[in-house]
């Protein structure tokens, strides 16, 4: 690593240079702030040891300029006349440490190594946060998605409880995470509970925790999700599957802002923002006695509806492009294209599994399709089924697929005045592939337009 020492005392520069070079660092030196800034622009050091009191611009101003130029540079301030106010100011401006003179070799090496490790952890956290943000980003530019995102941004800064409803696979968890990420609690944990995945006899312990010995198998104290989410966000997914008994406990915790662990005696006060989600009609569940009406109104302060994919088909090309890029990178393969005819078929399908179904399909196609382009023939037969119709045989499905592809190619040829090059470009396939498909489906200008002219090349 490259270290820049900035100090107006030649003896300090010389002694520090010797110590750091013995430790394997590449060392540069500067006698003042102006000189250090020139070296930083030219040689880009990883670490700067910066004296506070120097002629010209002082260390604090030099620190400000360094961080404005490149915030990733690790800066450790050194001073023989430091004050607490000066140290606080330096840390606010981005200094990693503040070391007082006189400097010992051991101390300076320890502090540099600590700063390197601290910076490594900070960088890893930034990358992890970026990775999480990308993993849970909401993709869509349709009007319904723009309205959804606007509602998320409006609701997020508040502490109001939110009830997210929508079909399976629409992205209800993404909405919950987006609300948390843009809230005042974003630096605190996002605690998630899938109410449908936990047995009734364990859900209470999962939510509220238990004391050691409170029941058979409780060999240690357990901290529940409500306690883990103190000053943070608790996401109750599939809330409609929670038992009536547990609903009563959750209602009490919401109303009183406190609860007691199983087997415990002392109430525990918490400040929790609750976001719930369900694929059920909770009003109907209330009418049928399966969901508490009072809890429903407590949770449903701000309702948010997540539309199914069939209500935003204009987002499908964007989603397909994102998933193609994602899964190609993850599997180390060249990013595939998708033909216009295949894309049109994707947009005509009713997607009962919503975005999750589309995501799984694209992942499968990236792995299984050997060519660079995904064609209609690569798509599974179920995409040719229409909702609320009897299931077709495999032969009928293949015929439907072939009929669709033939008609789509024919209409594109006609719109391009039978220009093969232009048609292939519009379909997103090679000319040789188009010729092969025309031969396969018996398409010709003479036959299909009753014309004496052959297709133009």
Summarize this structure as a short list of keywords or feature phrases.
five-stranded parallel sheet, Rossmann fold, alpha/beta, disordered C terminus
Tell me about this structure:
The chain has 457 residues and is an alpha/beta fold. The protein folds into 4 domains: 2-132, Rossmann fold (3-Layer(aba) Sandwich); 143-307, P-loop containing nucleotide triphosphate hydrolases (Rossmann fold, 3-Layer(aba) Sandwich), CATH 3.40.50; 309-389, Helicase, Ruva Protein, domain 3, CATH 1.10.8.60; 392-457, Homeodomain-like (Arc Repressor Mutant, subunit A). Helices cover 49% and strands 13% of the residues. The strands form 4 sheets. It has a 5-stranded parallel β-sheet with strand order 2-1-3-4-5, sandwiched between helices. The protein has a 5-stranded parallel β-sheet with strand order 7-8-11-6-12. α1 links the parallel β1 and β2. The longest helix is centred in the N-terminal third of the chain and has 31 residues, at 105-135. It is flat, with a radius of gyration of 32 Å. The relative contact order is 0.07.
The whole-angstrom Rg is: 32 Å
Residue share in β-strands:
5-15%
Relative helix content: 40-55%
CATH-level-2 architecture of the largest domain? 3-Layer(aba) Sandwich
The count of β-strands is: 14
Summarize the main sheet: 5 strands, parallel
Distance linking N and C termini:
61 Å
Q: Helices and strands: which structural class?
A: alpha/beta
Order of adjacent strands in the largest pleated sheet:
2-1-3-4-5
């Amino acid at each position: 690593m490259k270290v820049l020492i900035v100090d107006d005392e030649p003896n300090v520069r010389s002694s520090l240079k010797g110590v750091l070079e013995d430790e394997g660092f590449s060392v540069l030196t500067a006698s003042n702030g102006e000189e250090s800034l020139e070296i930083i622009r030219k040689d880009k050091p990883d670490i700067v040891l910066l004296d506070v009191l120097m002629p010209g611009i002082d260390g604090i101003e030099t620190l400000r300029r360094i961080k404005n130029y490149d915030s990733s540079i690790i800066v450790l301030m050194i001073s023989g006349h430091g004050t607490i106010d000066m140290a606080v100011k330096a840390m606010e401006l981005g200094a990693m440490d503040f070391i007082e003179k006189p400097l010992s070799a051991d101390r300076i090496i320890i502090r540099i190594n600590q700063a390197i490790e601290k910076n490594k952890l900070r960088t890893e956290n930034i990358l992890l946060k970026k990775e999480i943000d990308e993993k849970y980003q909401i993709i869509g530019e349709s009007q319904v998605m723009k309205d959804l995102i606007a509602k998320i941004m409006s609701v997020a800064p508040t502490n109001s409880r939110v009830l997210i409803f929508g079909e399976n696979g629409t992205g209800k968890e993404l909405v919950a995470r987006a609300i948390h990420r843009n809230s005042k609690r974003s630096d605190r944990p996002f605690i998630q509970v899938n109410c449908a995945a936990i047995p009734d006899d364990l859900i209470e312990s999962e939510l509220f925790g238990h004391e050691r010995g409170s029941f058979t198998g409780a060999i240690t104290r357990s901290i529940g999700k409500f306690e883990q989410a103190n000053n943070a966000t608790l996401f109750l997914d599939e809330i409609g599957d929670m038992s009536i008994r547990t609903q009563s406990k959750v209602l009490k915790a919401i109303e009183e802002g406190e609860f007691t662990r199983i087997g415990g005696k002392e109430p525990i006060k918490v400040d929790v923002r609750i976001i719930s989600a369900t694929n059920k009609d909770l009003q109907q569940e209330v009418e049928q006695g399966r969901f508490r009406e009072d809890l429903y109104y407590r949770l449903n302060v701000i309702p948010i509806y997540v539309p199914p994919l069939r209500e935003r088909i204009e987002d499908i090309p964007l989603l397909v492009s994102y998933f193609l890029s994602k899964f190609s990178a993850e599997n180390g393969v060249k990013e595939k294209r998708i033909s216009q005819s295949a894309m049109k078929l994707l947009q005509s399908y009713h997607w009962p599994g919503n975005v999750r179904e589309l995501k799984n399909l694209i992942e499968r196609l990236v792995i299984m399709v050997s060519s660079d382009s995904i064609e209609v023939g690569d798509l599974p037969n179920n995409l040719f089924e229409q909702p609320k119709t009897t299931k077709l045989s495999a032969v009928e499905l293949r015929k439907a697929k072939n009929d669709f592809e033939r008609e789509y190619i024919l209409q594109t040829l006609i719109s391009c005045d039978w220009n093969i090059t232009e048609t292939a470009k519009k379909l997103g396939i090679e000319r040789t592939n188009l010729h092969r498909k025309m031969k396969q489906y018996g398409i010709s200008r003479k036959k299909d337009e009753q014309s004496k002219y052959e297709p133009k090349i």
